[in-house]
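job 3f2a | input accepted
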Amino acid sequence: MAESEEEVDVLVQRVVKDINNAFKRNPNIDEIGLIPCPEARYNRSPIVLVENKLGVESWCVKFLLPYVHNKLLLYRQRKQWLDREALVDITCTLLLLNPDFTTAWNVRKELLQCGALSPQKDLYLGKLALTKFPKSPETWIHRRWVLKQVLRECFPPEPDRKEQVGGDRCNAVERLRLGEHLHRVLHDEIKVCANAAGRYPSNYNAWSHRIWVVQHMAQDNLKVLHDELSSMRQWVSMHVSDHSGFHYRQFLLKCLVGALSLSPSSSPQTDARGLSLDCQRRLPQQVNGEATAAGSCPRSPEEQPLVPAVLFLFQQEMELCTDLIQSFPGHEALWCHRRHVFYLWHHWRRDHDHHNGKGCQSPQLNHTDAGLICHPRVASPGAVRLDRADSRNGPACESQDAMEVDGVPDPRDIKRLKRCLPGPPVLPSEHGFVASILDGCRSPEQGRFALAYRKWLDSVIGQ
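job 3f2a | predicted structure (463 res):
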């Protein structure tokens, strides 16, 4: 029996060393996994490295996992001494097999604090563990702790004034380097969250971590928020039943609305909307044109870019909801998302009107009739028609719109004009959308969700 235990110790020590050597040979390993193999068939290492994929034959796990587990516990109980290098190797092996072992992550925290580990190596280990265990809560918790250390490095405390005067140039270069490093970490972390969400449906831990990353590392950066919202458009279109993805999109929409509401007073030289160049080109044609045609009450220059930008965000989101609901009938997540977006718009419009005063309300935000609304009954998803039946704007506005249409020589621009976004979401337009869904409904689930949405509109918004 003693000889068999010694053989097992020799075996697992060799496996731990093979795992460490695999990372030294290929520092670009991007995925780990178990290879189904009930028993050892050849006299070779159970560690298989193919391109950037690391595999462990399953037969050795029953020997390897108890060994590294007991080793680490003996070290924590001060019954066995291990040097830093051995601790790094043992915790690495243990966490690749069982990433929810909190003690191993705590040991790596101590190693990181004493300088034996770098934050990049710890983030890399967690990234690999998430390829096999994408929902591991302890891994996500540890990543947040490591990212806090990175943030402390990128935002050190301000030096004294005397030291600051002598090293302004060095500090500027260092801040630029730290800013670029933080941007790379943010980009990599979002990519890790996206990969984990794709491996496990409705991965609440991954989406919660992504929200934390945006909150603490983006710091209301309008470009980051808008880029995230744009990149998520394709993801939610391919995962129409994933509530977590839509919840993250709702979070981004709230952050963008809040940041846009504060940004106009920050710097008049920068673009207060924080939108991408493509949206900046489309925004004056689709939103500002309607705002200037319908606006009868002058507003301050600081408020002028705010309403079109926020209105444009909600128009895009409602258009996305409409396309997905019509293309993929019978998915509750889509209707819940539409409900949340309309509720957020309704409250923002009410708060904005209350802030500006009832006597100076912009018509494009407050009218509840069919003016400037793309009615789903008369418009197909492929070609949206603007119904400008609102007579309050007068014939001058209609002639102005006609001049804009007649002055477009390119047929592609005419097609783009026909497909322009509808007016602000209002209660009659939502009732019309529900009616159009019920008219051509062939799915009982779709009809049930549409009726529930209409009931919610009447009971919550219509009061």
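job 3f2a | Strands lie at 31-35, 47-50, 53-57.
job 3f2a | closed
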